[in-house]
Specification:
alpha/beta; 6-stranded mixed sheet; single chain; nucleotide-binding; binds magnesium ion; NIL_domain; about 350 residues; ABC_transporter-like_CS; transport; translocase; Rossmann fold; binds adenosine-5'-triphosphate; 14 strands; elongated; 2 domains
Length: about 350
Amino acid sequence: MIEFHNIVKEFHHKGKKMTALHNVSLKIDKGDIYGVIGYSGAGKSTLLRMVNALETPTTGKVIVGGKELGTISNQELSQVKKNISMIFQHFNLLESKTVFDNVALPLVLNKVDKATIHKRVKELLEFVGLADKENSYPSQLSGGQKQRIGIARALVTNPEILLCDEATSALDPKTTVSILKLLKRINQEFNITILIVTHEMEVIREICNKVAVMEKGNVIEAGDVLAVFGNPQRETTKEFVKTVIHDEIPSSVVQELQAEKRNRRVYQLKFFGKTASEPLLTKLTKEFDVDMNIVFANVTELQGTTLGIFTVAFFGEDSVLDHLYHYVTERNISIKEVIV
Ligand SMILES: Nc1ncnc2c1ncn2[C@@H]1O[C@H](COP(=O)(O)OP(=O)(O)OP(=O)(O)O)[C@@H](O)[C@H]1O
Ligand SMILES: [Mg+2]
């Protein structure tokens, strides 16, 4: 649906060159909710804005719906752009126009007839739950309501692709969740492909099936959310994951462990799927005749499955604990020693 091939983007400012994107390649399939996460300045917005040709790459290809943007005629390009809508952090509503007129605007610009506009705007205000606000002005709405209007305006043209640039960053956590749920519904009910850039892991965890992590103009990790979250490789990815999946042993437990006289080793185990953890832990204590103490556990729901992190202190001889470690790795379960 959307492909970025070896995208380089350079900006020239006051005679100085800065490279915002180094060599970015990504593929977003139809139906994806694809999240791009990174700190400020990573190049997320620059990348997003290439999809609707608000930015053009210095080198590299952007392909949308099979069309390479740099090579098609203006007419074809405007056809591609008609299929793409965008929502923004600060909503970008026209303050002097009513809610109805804001939502109607893209259709008015496309010279759609009045009766069709009326019907379509009503439908969408209903869909976003703000049918009663059609005569209000943006200044009379909360942030969450403004974003719902932004979403209604984005959908009014029946797009196939929705671009979201920090769409929830100006909202409180509860409102964020309600907007994310709305985006998920849009994806499922209208089969709209969503590309969302954010610095909030919450967004990725709640709705994305795919994620790319960007750092200084590069994509450093990308793939299924479960795979990237479950086994982050790079420091930046680990930092982001930590903001939603905690794996630190509480300090009081650390103190207890340090006071413990028996020989022990602390291992962190990761499991995917609800029921995987219990049988393994029981089996380990039986098979190796060791005592264990779960010092930290966290189960996070991701894309309909669960990621369980268990940090366990095992008490026993070093040779037995070595065996235990190998036994687990042989079963393709993630295990690593935690130094306490
Ligand atoms: N028009 C421009 N002219 C010059 N430099 C630019 C321009 N647009 C972006 N940049 C630079 O490119 C880099 C990437 O910017 P971009 O806005 O894509 O980052 P971002 O990841 O979206 O950051 P944020 O989270 O703050 O929105 C930044 O260093 C920025 O200053
Ligand atoms: Mg940005």
